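=== RUN LOG ===
request id: a7f3
mode: sequence -> structure
chains: 1
length: 67
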Amino acid sequence: MDLDDLPRPKGDAASALAREDLAPYSQEELGERIALLEAEIARVRAHADKAAAHRNAADALFRKPGA
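=== RESULT ===
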């Protein structure tokens, strides 16, 4: 089994963010947090797209002829 196929640990950063109490934050702080999270989402999507392109290139390279 590939390490990438294993589930993420429950203690990862995204899980911690999801559990955080948002009540203490002001509207301005919440807006800043949203902007940071949107930037992180864009970064993760770009990385996922790059990884998919890399995987597709590898699959094409190692594909058996006629398959």
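=== NOTES ===
Helices lie at 13-19, 27-62.
The mean pLDDT is 88.
=== END ===
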